[in-house]
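Observation: inputs received (chain + 2-hydroxyethylsulfonic acid).
Thought: call the complex predictor directly.
Action: predict_structure
Action Input:
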Amino acid sequence: MNTSLKNKWIFITGASAGFGAEGARHFAREGANLILGARRVERLESVATECKQGGAASAHFHELDVASTESVNAFVDWLRTLTPKLDVLVNNAGGAHGMDTVAEGKDADWEAMVQSNFLGLMRVTRACLPLMVKNAGSTIINIGSIAGRVAYEYGSVYCGVKAAEKSITQTLRLELNGTGVRVGTLDPGLALTEFSMVRFKGDVEKAGKAYEGLDPLVAEDIAEAMIWMATRPPHVCIDEILIKCTAQAAIHKTHRVTD
Ligand code: NDP
Ligand code: 8X3
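Observation:
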């Protein structure tokens, strides 16, 4: 039987925008309790309000910077005042910073990507595991990327941290074997969120070029997959999902229609 999400406790990192915010809205429709974290608290507040209006059993938010162990631990201490257990953890916070060759890469960009996508996932998971290991059927969904499967030029560190995400996901599945906790990676291709605006530091023209002439994925496509992964029966673990828009046959082959 499928797992019902009604009254279950869901923690989503990076819930202020994109996949995380849309995932929250989707879990809300299932009647779940939402715990939302990100750095932009005012954004979290409006997502939480939408979740409550959209059917959530409850929706809570708190500032979270996954790049800081102190912030992650303080967040999880606060989370423990809401619930002693977690049913779903979505490790979503992250993104790309810059698009340079290795020769021209910037330390600050590299560090930001390693801190959020890689170490952030490690810190959050470490802090949350005690709330999950005695909860058979609970689910960890790590948001990876097509970039973690196939490297591309100018993407070295982003591709590297998303490849690391896949490795961590596999390690966790091995370490948690026997606990009943499912661990999976959800790997999107090109998707229209704030991702490219962040990558190109607010340059609208450069960000727009990423999606020019094609219909990219949208956050809803990925939110639907989150729900599907989390609602499988407890004996089913979805190890990996790769979702691309139809126009993206492969990382280096996208069909674009330009006038
Ligand atoms: P968005 O930029 O729309 O959202 C990113 C989210 O991550 C925001 O809520 C942001 O919140 C949060 N975030 C970033 N850094 C931190 C941090 N240090 N601490 C806490 N939260 C943080 O992008 P997406 O929704 O597209 O990205 C979500 C995930 O999906 C990322 O891991 C990204 O790498 C991955 N991905 C994206 C793809 C795409 O094409 N869009 C494709 C494949 C994977 P705030 O700034 O408020 O802290
Ligand atoms: C985001 C997708 O192809 O821009 O992870 O790296 S891509």
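Thought: report the result.
Final Answer: The domain at 9-253 is CATH 3.40.50.720 (Rossmann fold). The two ends are 50 Å apart (CA to CA).
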